[in-house]
Amino acid sequence: MAFTGARMRRGAPLSSLLCLAPGCTYTGKNSACRWTVDVCWALLVDFRKQVDDAAFALPRGNDALSARSFLPSLACLSCLVHTVDAETKTHVFLGCSPCLFSALEFKPPCGSRFLKVFKMALAQTQHLALLLAVLSVLTGAQAGLYAPNGPVKVLSGQQFKEQVVGSNDLFIVEFYADWCGHCQRFAPEFEKAAKALRGIVTLVAVSDQSAMGEYGVQGFPTVKAFVGRGGKPPKTFDYNQGRDAASLIEFAVMHAGKLARARLAGKIDAGTDAKPSEKAGSPEKETSDVIELTDGNFNQLVMKDDKSVWFVEFYAPWCGHCKALAPTWEEVATALKGKVKVGKVDATVEKVLASTYGIRGFPTLKLFPAGEKSVGLVKDYEGARTTEALLKYAMEFFSVNVTTEQLLNESQFRKACGDQLCVLAFLPHILDSKTEKRNEYLATLNRVVRASFHMPIAFFWSQGGDQYEFEEQLNLAFGYPAVVAVHLSKGKYAIHRGDFSQESINTFLTQLLAGKAPISELPKNLKKLEESRAWDGKDEELPKDEL
């Protein structure tokens, strides 16, 4: 569809204000320049600041596109303003091209002309509220989304490179624009998360376009986790969860846990984030979380392990794609440690396994679900070979199988809950609830566990009364079932006061991680757990002398 004419007919309504990159074909089907007639786009200039881009949309039906969704480049832009002739239905070009030669440089000769076109449009258009909003931005009337000294750290492009890209720490970064409606609605939740995570993970907001292109920002808001590597290209992880504080906190805590575990395992140095082998004079680390599998140990380790999910790579040492996957596979193994077992098989050596599983190319990735294992139940992985995609796939199988454990002794308690949050559910005695009711309680608890598998939390259950003194110290005498969250190393605990349902317990955990749940100090003389008997899954009868 071409522009025709050179003047605006009297009474013609303003249909669109478009900002297109030079050389971009203006057609309805071109994916780089797709548009909706009744959507008004603008590149807006704030004369008191640097040039910023903004868009105001009048949706047609349910369409509401983002200017970034079809702008192939912001390096050199032309401003095109046009209207639709009401009689001929042709598009009439109004002017102002070129306007901006750089996304960070405003050319004054076009300024008065740009404003003049807006005034013409204002006199003609039926959409007065829209253009008043446009003009308010042009005069600098719109304030930023985040306060300079608020919980969210607002950075310029240069500050972002220095403080985030050049660091060794974890940051949750929002790329945004002040004009973006979704960003405006998201801002309060982002601030809530920043307050809750203060001192744990820093949340950063960046609106500088110069910092976005390298990280594939296509729309607003875009949120990513950045793990800085001291000036090297940072590791980034896309955030694809809900636009609420609780989901942000879960995402941040998950990546904080991964980073801490990697440092603890010696994968990276806490001070420099360099691998130990990269530091001068330090020996190369030989340990790995990837388990070497062979014809001799595969059956015992994998096929007879009905409790675990196994994710296995079949590779060849000479294979270039396998070499490229190797560091990613190590990251996946470390991230899945304690949840999904990750292994690898040299298919050029272990030829029995290669033949059994029909290996024809490298690398070949296969997942062995938990439960009884057989060749016919193995799942072929055919997705992207990125850390995020591999983790998501493996965790889908883990979450289906994960269940809570019975807490039986002090050693188990200290090992699991010494340095992380533990949720303990005290269920009614089997004499009071019987097997059917206990299984209902456990089913509810297991649904909570599966819904929370990405959180750094361990879950246990215990029979009420088996740890009577311990329960009394934590003020759990109000009855069963009772749920309490304990963090031994921090000396804190919190009691769930709601009903024993998945929704109620999930809400409790979310509030706890967000810092909104009441927290108490653990007693200094906390009673050690007594040795308990594992439940056999059956009902129990009273001794005859007590009948």
Protein structure class: alpha/beta
Separation of the first and last Cα atoms? 91 Å
Q: What summary fits the major beta sheet? A: 6 strands, mixed
Helix percent reads: 25-40%
Which geometry do the CA atoms define? flat
Family: Belongs to the protein disulfide isomerase family.
GO biological process, one term: response to endoplasmic reticulum stress
Protein name: protein disulfide-isomerase
InterPro entries: PDI_thioredoxin-like_dom, Thioredox_PDIA6_C, Thioredoxin-like_sf, Thioredoxin_CS, Thioredoxin_domain
Key features of this structure:
five-stranded mixed β-sheet; 13 helices; six-stranded mixed β-sheet; single chain; 547 residues
What is the topological layout?
Elements: E1 3-4, E2 16-20, E3 41-42, E4 54-55, E5 78-84, E6 91-95, H1 111-124, H2 128-138, E7 153-155, H3 157-165, E8 170-175, H4 181-196, E9 202-206, E10 222-229, E11 232-238, H5 245-264, E12 291-293, H6 298-303, E13 309-315, H7 320-335, E14 340-346, H8 351-356, E15 364-368, E16 379-381, H9 387-401, E17 405-406, H10 410-417, E18 421-427, H11 430-451, E19 457-463, H12 468-473, E20 482-487, E21 492-495, H13 502-513, E22 520-521
Characterization of this structure:
By secondary structure, the chain is of the alpha/beta class. The chain has 4 domains: 3-138, no CATH class; 153-264, Glutaredoxin (3-Layer(aba) Sandwich); 291-401, 3-Layer(aba) Sandwich (Glutaredoxin); 405-521, Glutaredoxin (3-Layer(aba) Sandwich), CATH 3.40.30. 29% of the residues lie in helices and 19% in strands. It is built from 13 helices and 22 strands. The protein has a 6-stranded mixed β-sheet, covered by helices on one side. A hairpin with a 6-residue loop joins strand 5 and strand 6. The chain is flat.
